Please model this.
Amino acid sequence: MPVPEGNARLEKQGRFTLKDFNYDGASDTYRCPAGQLLHPMKSRQKNTSGRIEIRYAARGAICKTCPLKVRCLSSNEKLRLPSNADYRTIGRWEHESVLERHRTRMQGAGELMRRRFGIVEHPFGTLKCRAGYRHFLVRGFDKVRGEWSLMALCYNFTRVLNILGFDAFLAALAKTLAPCLSIGLQI
Model:
């Protein structure tokens, strides 16, 4: 999946976004565009999507005198900064390193992704187009898993019938069931 770009609103305002800050895994710090370090705070927070975030903060004394303060901080209350916020904070998901490793691995995987789209995306498009299957009709993970399993079974059964044909499918089914019928198992 493409990597989400982050907060475009800050970019439009000419402010620094997360991609302007560099993370150093060895020291577990971020470096701001002015070259100052943001250190992890002790507490963890849950963001709006329910992920646990580690907050990194700069020192207030440094931010107050920084020449890039205008592009880094804002007194705008819509940005959810407290009224006394005179230092920059950055949120990082506690498992962000997993995503970074994945992004690194996927840098040169263009051909692999094109093959994947050709193989894997076809069933989803078929289910959406032919079956009219655009959303799940039930709620709850187990129920959704069951509904998806039924849709996948129908798709796979249709593929088998298209590839083998109905007569060849019945012959293969009879051949498979013959040992069960010969020993008296009821199906």
